[in-house]
Design brief:
Elements (H helix, E strand, L loop, with lengths): L18 H4 L2 H20 L3 H4 L2 E7 L2 E6 L2 H9 L1 H10 L6 E6 L17 H13 L3 H18 L7
Parallel strand pairs: 2-3
Antiparallel strand pairs: 1-2
Helix pairs in contact: 6-7
Pfam families: DciA
Protein name: DciA family protein
Length: 160
């Protein structure tokens, strides 16, 4: 008599995995650490301009998967496949092929420029608005904003 295989939930689609399918946080952290170490080891052997434009993404079914920032960098990385596989074998990673996918790097988030001061006219309007409030808390907030605008415009403007 054959035993039935235990019921395993199968994923449908490409959406996010459920927590049960992901395993423990410690397991995920170990895998991420191992992939990070493999990324450093493999990219270390690449020439400098290429090294900054590609990232190791995964080891899947004996296939090293890389992400390149453009098709041109992907082509250059594909030309280095033999060297990459030799490096992988030298560090004990079983891999038989290299796959390169083009995935532009996300733009670097820039902080908004907070150094642009409000004009003296804006400070005047803020003071006028503060004078019209009956709520003392709002009045104080608007006066504080007005004083910041004046201070940012000129160091002497606080002497009214």
């Amino acid at each position: 008599m054959q035993r039935a295989a235990p019921a395993i939930s199968r994923r449908t689609g490409n959406g996010p995995k459920s927590l049960v399918e992901c395993g423990s946080f410690a397991t995920l952290a170990r895998k991420a650490g191992a992939l990070e170490a493999l990324d450093r080891a493999l990219r270390q052997t690449l020439p400098s301009p290429l090294r900054e434009q590609v990232r190791f993404a995964n080891l899947h079914n004996d296939r090293l998967v890389f992400l390149a920032s453009s098709p041109a960098w992907a082509s250059r990385l594909r030309l280095m496949q033999t060297q990459i596989l030799a490096t992988a074998h030298a560090i004990g990673t079983r891999a038989s092929s290299v796959t390169v996918k083009v995935a532009p790097q996300p733009p670097v988030a820039t902080a908004p420029d907070r150094s642009k001061p409000l004009s003296l006219a804006a400070a005047t309007h803020l003071r006028a608005a503060a004078a019209s409030f009956t709520d003392p808390e709002w009045r104080v907030l608007f006066l504080e904003l007005a004083s910041l605008a004046e201070t940012a415009d000129s160091p002497d403007s606080g002497a009214d």
